[in-house]
Amino acid sequence: MEENLYSQNLKTITHATFCFENEDHTLGNCLRCILLQKEGIEFAGYTVPHPTQAEINLRIQTTGSQKNIFIPPSSIVHASQTRYKHFKRFVR
Q1: Which pTM value belongs to this model?
Q2: For the segment 12-40, what is each residue's pLDDT rounded down to a tens digit?
Q3: Domain parsing of the chain, residue ranges
Q4: Where is each DNA-directed RNA polymerase RBP11-like dimerisation domain found (predicted)?
């Protein structure tokens, strides 16, 4: 899995779009569900640009009104760690 910052609005750090290469709906839906459970996440969604491409674009938008603003890149890290913890419990 390769993670690249696809685009980010330079005026604000409350939203960003990430491009994951060699991934599909499996990772996209998993990350979206985990992100939406976090306080401060206003929107999380993903798209697959084309069915023949193994790539997803994940967009995260935070409320920006919290004392500790959830910066989108740290949200991705947290979601990935949560996904790994769930996977470890499933394997046992």
Answers
A1: 0.68
A2: 577 888 898 998 898 899 889 888 888 88
A3: 2-91
A4: 16-66
